[in-house]
Amino acid sequence: MVDDYFADDLFRSPGNRGSTYLFLRWCADRFGPDLLPALIRSPRRGVANLEAATGVPFADLYRQWSTALYLSGLDPSHQSEIGFRSLDVRGPFDDWDLAGPRPVRVTPGGAPETWSAAGTSSRFVVVEPPTTGAVEVEVTGPPDAEVQVTAVPLPGGMARLDLSARVSADAKGDLRLRIGLAERAGIPMRLTALAWEPLVPAADPHAPGFRRDGLDVLGIASTFGTSALPAHGRLHSRPIRLRGIHPDSGPLVIKAVGTDAQGRRIAAWAEVDLTSVRDDLDLDADPLDL
Hints:
The chain is α+β, with helices and mostly antiparallel strands. The chain has helices at 14-31, 35-41, 46-54, 58-71, 217-224; strands spanning 92-93, 96-97, 104-106, 125-127, 161-169, 175-183, 189-198, 213-215, 228-229, 234-236, 240-241, 252-260, 265-272.
């Protein structure tokens, strides 16, 4: 939390602006259309204003919002009571394919997950199911950080999608993207979108240059030969030409989105560092020009 994100030079930060918008939009969904007028007309400001208008401590609001971000749209047949009502964070939005928050996967008995976090930020961790028995989760951090930990059971029988990505350059210097997909939980699913965008958005959203690209269902079927991923199945793409992207464009984040037979939204993520792209002289395969 900051008193004035203009003064702290955070106004042009996509992360701060996006999270502020999503938090207030969720608050309006949760407490009704009278909330925003009440905030504007109140003599209070900041956290005190929000707590007075909602009657809920900020720590509880933040916990509920973080949970709503992940659960909203995950299972359309069982919508969370605290989820977004006016926005689908796991569906198409204009030209963008939303996939919810990007989680980190942790395997019981594996290496511990460590990270640094800015104040008032969330991290989403999916603990893989154990082969036998229960799982004990331990979270440690500095006492003065007052870390909140919320454990939420996910729906049973969900597909698990893994994504791998590699970018190479042909003899002409054009970048080609190759994607590998694998279903790990033994649940068949259908792919609905594949998208890539800069890991760090441009400061000016109206500046010329690459913003996003991707494939719809027909493009996926053409690139992979099918949009259906069977249980424990694997798919490998043909080379995809990356238009408007250069090795100095910075890292890309790539996401694949699909649904299982129950209509639950499944997503997988990967990053590629374009600075490590090497020349790829294998021209035997014709790249898919999209």
